[in-house]
Amino acid sequence: MSIQQKKRPVVIGVTGGSGSGKTTVSNKIYDQLHGQAIQIINQDTYYNDQADMTMDERKAVNYDHPLSFDTDLLIKQLTDLRSNKAIEMPVYDYTQYTRSDKTVHVEPTDVIILEGILILDDERLRDLMDIKVYVDTDDDIRIIRRIQRDMVERGRSLDSIITQYLATVKPMYHQFVEPTKRYADIIVPEGGENQVAIDLLSTKIRDILVKRGHTELR
């Protein structure tokens, strides 16, 4: 095996319903592997470009359906990162409901955490992951977290959040997200509160890194 193959980035997929604690789990893994070159990529960044649509049309899109994502672009860019090639990652503007004209230059790192609600839905994407994690959290907790996040970070009103949750988020979760649990290598109950699972994941990732020749662990 060549040095380049040994140094291939380790890709960790972290999924679960909206508000399940995916970000918390991802950040805690990130913190435990602070001695490594590690980054988090969010699937939400890869929502489709909707610049050719009116604002009303953009707001009417079902953002919890697999077709709302530019999965082909995500697969291409993740494949490039795994091949140690840099990418120009898109930037999504949540206030405008479409992709920004800006991009972010991203270099490959030892560990890539891919986070998102539907990252296990596409077999091509699953095949690019070394470890697949499903964060399993109660529905009531998830909707409360979603309300807090969308009002503070995404400029949404309470009414719009609740309407969207009942119309698309909840039904799409049961139709598309929850069924992907069967593809997970590890299921983490209660998200970021499960420190035992996070410790085990971090240890496993370090083990993979060592086997691939990443000897600079700290």
Number of helices, counting only DSSP H or I runs of 4 residues or more: 8
Number of strands: 7
> What is the typical, i.e. mean, pLDDT?
90
Write down the oligomeric state: single chain
Rg: 17 Å
Approximate shape: globular
CATH class: Alpha Beta
How are the strands of the largest sheet arranged?
2-5-1-6-7
Question: Would you mind describing this structure in some detail?
Answer:
The chain is of the alpha/beta class and 218 residues long. It has a five-stranded parallel β-sheet with strand order 2-5-1-6-7, with helices on one face. Strands 3-4 form a two-stranded antiparallel sheet. It has helices at 3-6, 22-32, 55-59, 71-82, 123-126, 139-153, 158-177, 195-211, and strands at 10-16, 38-42, 87-93, 98-106, 111-115, 131-136, 186-189. The chain has one domain (3-205): Rossmann fold, CATH 3.40.50. The model has no long low-confidence stretch (mean pLDDT 90).
Q: Helices and strands in order, then pairings?
A:
Blueprint: H1 3-6, E1 10-16, H2 22-32, E2 38-42, H3 55-59, H4 71-82, E3 87-93, E4 98-106, E5 111-115, H5 123-126, E6 131-136, H6 139-153, H7 158-177, E7 186-189, H8 195-211
